[in-house]
């Protein structure tokens, strides 16, 4: 889900990074600290280019999206009745109940999108989500202007999940 949302955000705000998204996201998930630190320095996000180093937004977007998904999961679980929490947890951990070599069941009948939010977000939920995303972006060293752009894109994507198909 993190990768799906982050890819949509990158397609919206940094289309030029789409061709390297897969390899950068693999590097991020292999070692998030290193992917965010750049060339051995923990202060500069991953960059590339000749002469002038251009900022690669993908690791920053992945970090912010991971925190957003974590926050959304907490918000969603807090809004669900006890039976709903049990059902959601069963669905999340269902993959662990499969026999080796069998594929995951098709969830298309159960939801409209793998990135769908199960509850309607209230204004205070959106504000909390924005705070979490912007704090993460600040910790990653993103400039305020780009932080607003990324936060708006992540929140927009989380509020309007991609339709199935």
TrEMBL record:
Top-rank lineage group of the source organism: Bacteria
Species this chain originates from: Streptomyces triculaminicus
Protein name from the UniProt record: Uncharacterized protein
Chain residue ranges for the region called Disordered: 96-117
């Amino acid at each position: 889900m993190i990768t799906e949302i982050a890819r949509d955000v990158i397609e919206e705000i940094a289309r030029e990074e789409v061709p390297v998204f897969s390899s950068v996201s693999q590097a991020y998930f292999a070692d998030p600290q290193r992917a965010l630190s750049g060339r051995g320095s923990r202060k500069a996000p991953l960059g590339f280019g000749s002469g002038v180093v251009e900022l690669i937004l993908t690791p920053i977007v992945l970090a912010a999206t991971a925190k957003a998904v974590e926050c959304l999961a907490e918000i969603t679980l807090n809004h669900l009745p006890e039976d709903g929490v049990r059902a959601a947890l069963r669905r999340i951990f269902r993959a662990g109940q499969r026999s080796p070599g069998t594929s995951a069941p098709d969830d298309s009948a159960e939801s409209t999108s793998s990135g769908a939010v199960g509850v309607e977000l209230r204004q205070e939920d959106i504000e909390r989500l924005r705070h979490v995303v912007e704090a993460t972006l600040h910790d990653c060293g993103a400039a305020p202007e780009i932080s607003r752009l990324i936060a708006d894109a992540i929140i927009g994507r989380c509020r309007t999940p991609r339709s199935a198909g």
